[in-house]
Amino acid sequence: MAGGIKGRIGRSLQETMEIHDQRRCPRVRANFQVTLHKRVPGIPGLLGGNTLDLSESGAFIKTENWQLFKPDEVTELTIFLPPDFTGMPTPLGLRGSAIVRKVDSFREGIAVEFIEKLKHFRPISMC
User: 17-23: which pairs have CB atoms within 8 A and are 24 or more residues apart?
Assistant: First the structure.
């Protein structure tokens, strides 16, 4: 079953792909909810954000807590894909790890490089 999910996600990314530059992995403009698994003293719960773009190897995540991240920091994250994107009846969370490559004050977010490609993130059921 997991192979089928990963195949559908990969096809969905390719079907909606817009190439913006000459990166290793082309990016798509995509707005998906993200949970950043970083605990910060004084902030209850986990940090949230939304992708502005996404590829197999990384993403740019807009978050009001961008200033709490540092370049080269490793963070775990979950990207939530809606049912209309995956073809599943409920949202699908994909959990994996990433390295913060850039903290962007102008765009108020962070550029991350996934440690493993997106297709290798662990599916998290939302039911």
Answer: 20/53, 23/55, 23/57
